[in-house]
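Can anyone check this?
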Amino acid sequence: MGTTMTEAVTAAPRAPARREAARESNLFYLLQVASQAFPVGSFSHSYGFESLIVDGYIRNADDLGRWAALWMRNGLATADGAAVRLARAAALAGDWAAIEKIDAVLTALKLGKETRAASLNTGDAFVRAVLDAFGGERLSSYGQALREGRVAGHYATAFGVGMADAGIAERESVAAFLQSSLSSLVGVAARIIPLGQFETQRILADARPQLSECARIALDTPADELGTTFAILDIASMQHERLYSRLCIS
């Protein structure tokens, strides 16, 4: 039986509506898993910033904004940010050897014991939380590889694999990871300094151009150029292990 003109007209908007619904679903997923409320444990990690605060390098909102910008540009964009993109692409291609290599490089780049452990712990938590809430074939395979010791399980790698499962576009995946990482760090540091909620939100608002620039850098960083140039934070992270009193795990 043929399709009538009325049926054709009625059916016409369905494809755009489905695409719009799919975009909304992806957005809802991204807002959930990149939220500070998602149970990965980022709220307990300063990645060495607590040492910088204790030593007097960071005393107020302006200081925190400057140091956070340096961290994003010289520590996050060319390492974890780029790793998100690379892991997402490798997962889509089914290239598990590449994913193992990304994890191995991230392990080598994280010189401080606490910083390395923080990345691994949040990565493991991300895998478990996403699989429990959403499932996902690729992330399930990554979780199995993690249990078998074939991958390290860094947060950035796990995040990228999760983005592949959810069908999140490359740039949105990287941008969400960077913004989520900055938001978590600023929230932790603001409790130590301390800062008010309005000051904290201004830091994040002012960082938007920097986040866009760091996303571009992360998207342009090839696999063989993953690296960091923020040695002072590595030192601060190592010093954090010996702080007499501390609020954060790292």
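Reply from J.R.: I decoded it. Confidence is low (pLDDT under 50) at residues 5-10.
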